[in-house]
Amino acid sequence: MAYTLPHDIAGNISLEEYLDAVSRTLDVNDEDSILATAPLLAALANNRDFLVDRFNKELLGWQNFQPANGYSSQTLMLGAGPRFAVRANMWVPIDVDRAMWDWESKLYAYSRPHDHNFSFLTVGYLGPGYRTQIFEYEPTSIAGVAGEDVDLQFLEDTELPEGKIMFYRASRDIHSQEPPPAFSMSINLMVVSAGLGARDQYWFDLDKGKVTGYVQTPATSQLMMCQLAQWFPDDSTADALDQVAASAPSPRVRAAAYGSLAVLRPDSAESLSKRAAADPDPLVQALVVENRSL
């Protein structure tokens, strides 16, 4: 289950010291190694000056503000290393205006149960923190098709106040966050273990116990390119799609490549369907063989 990690760390370290220590000690494929870095995160959170100093420097360098930040506007990237990244997330109370609620709830993923394809440690840095319901599921039990049933096990209803550290497991822990009563911030250590980065992240309906869709990730742009390829191909497009269908790490991207290949090579539809049926991931089989929507 998702862990709450008690600690009694009193000292503090700088962001540079934290990044250096994590780079030297973290094994991204070993859960115990990830958990062992929790005291470092606690010490970083005890530093009450580093984040505002970093924020001010980013503001002063506005023309080059966060060039490597591929996340939403609530996120401030703080650093990265081999297969890990550190970020600060801002959490704001929802505006009472209904239109603003709709927009802000989507931005902050409030009341939208989801998982992640990376494990992460998180610590409350400022404010009372968001409230969250946490469930778990077995990732191998689903293909990942919208509308699919999923067995959800309730774990806890909790909060992330200042100083509290939690660990969420990749493709296992689902959380549904609710807006905090006051502005809050958290700091995350995100860890991408071998073989997990290509997995989809999903939205869930907790009441119905269903997958409702997938979360857009960097792989989504690859998905779009595969879908668009059928509309303006040249002589080499089908060959390129064939390679993607055979080797892309993301099963959803492979399925999209098969879909466009079937349009560009209609005479090969049957053989493509057989290839998709032999794909090791059930999502490819479900989307291509059963002609399901991506």
Folded structure, characterized:
The strands form 3 sheets. Strands 1-7-4-9-3-2 form a 6-stranded antiparallel β-sheet, with helices on one face. It has a 3-stranded antiparallel β-sheet with strand order 6-5-8, with no helix packed on it. It has a two-stranded antiparallel sheet with strand order 10-11. It folds into 2 domains: 3-214, Jelly Rolls; 219-289, no CATH class. The model has no long low-confidence stretch (mean pLDDT 86). Helices cover 33% and strands 22% of the residues. The protein is built from 10 helices and 11 strands. Helix 1 (15-25) packs antiparallel against helix 3 (38-45), helix 6 (219-228) packs parallel to helix 8 and helix 9 packs antiparallel against helix 10. The protein has 294 residues and is of the alpha+beta class. The protein has helices at residues 15-25, 31-36, 38-45, 50-60, 98-107, 219-228, 237-247, 251-264, 269-277, 282-289; strands spanning 3-4, 75-81, 84-91, 119-126, 131-136, 153-159, 165-168, 173-178, 184-191, 202-205, 210-214. The longest helix has 14 residues, at 251-264. It is elongated.
